Amino acid sequence: MQRVALVQEAQPARRPPPGGARVQDNILARGERDFLDWLCVHMPRAVTPDKLTGFGACGASLVFASYAATRLHPLFFWLATLGVVIHWLGDSLDGSLARYRQIVRPRYGYFLDHSVDALCNLTIMAGAGLSAYIRLDVALFALLGYFMLCMYVFLYNHVSQRFQLSFLALGPTELRVGLIGLNCWMYFSGDLKIAIGGETFSPYDLVLCGAGIVFVCLFAVNVFKVARKLRREDASQSRPSGSGNRPLL
């Protein structure tokens, strides 16, 4: 009996599923949630969360191809906009449908969803950089800033069990709406050029560059704030019981 107990103790404990309380204070969160709940109720049984994830990835691929095709004709900006909507629908609805049908696979869903998100974001922004009016280096800089902010979200979720989906009252849905607005602006305004420091940029480049700077700043500010908070908490927990209020070196 003792031998069996030792074997059982040696087995690694199953980790709890990833993820935590969702912090979603973006402007469109309530309306989006109501719409997604309605879709879940009326969704055919043949539609599954995995199929929706693939549907969203197809939308990102359509965005890439459409952006590249804008070099042939600006009308492809509208097809890129359709791709953004398809990507939003698949990406936002897959997890919602799994929770509604109570078929959640926490670790698998978390791993697959965020892996596909990263690939789709790269596909979309690479496509934007290959479009008629946006520089590739600018598009990838904006993507880099967004990925840094995502890194903060995952790290913060790990140390606090709070999954922060919005910053400055904006979340992924608002960013997609902004991308649709940028598509409309590029279609109606066409090729605009601005010379800065011997380089040629478009106003659309400046918007994406500004977005990238905001992402990087949000990353830096939030990392500094959370690191200070965790440092104080860990110091108080590691303080010996008899140390009183003596300052730590």
Detailed description of the structure:
This protein has 249 residues and is mainly alpha-helical. It has one domain: Up-down Bundle (Four Helix Bundle (Hemerythrin (Met), subunit A)). It is 69% helix and 5% strand. The protein contains eight helices and four strands, in the order αβαααααβαββα. Helix 2 packs across helix 4, helix 3 runs antiparallel to helix 4 and helix 3 runs parallel beside helix 5. The termini are far apart.
Any descriptors?
two-stranded parallel ribbon, disordered N terminus, mainly alpha, 5% strand, Four Helix Bundle (Hemerythrin (Met), subunit A)
The number of E-state strands comes to 4
CATH overall fold name = Four Helix Bundle (Hemerythrin (Met), subunit A)
Which geometry do the CA atoms define? Answer: flat
Derived structural class: mainly alpha
Low-confidence segments, given as residue ranges, are: 1-17
What is the name of the CATH class? Mainly Alpha
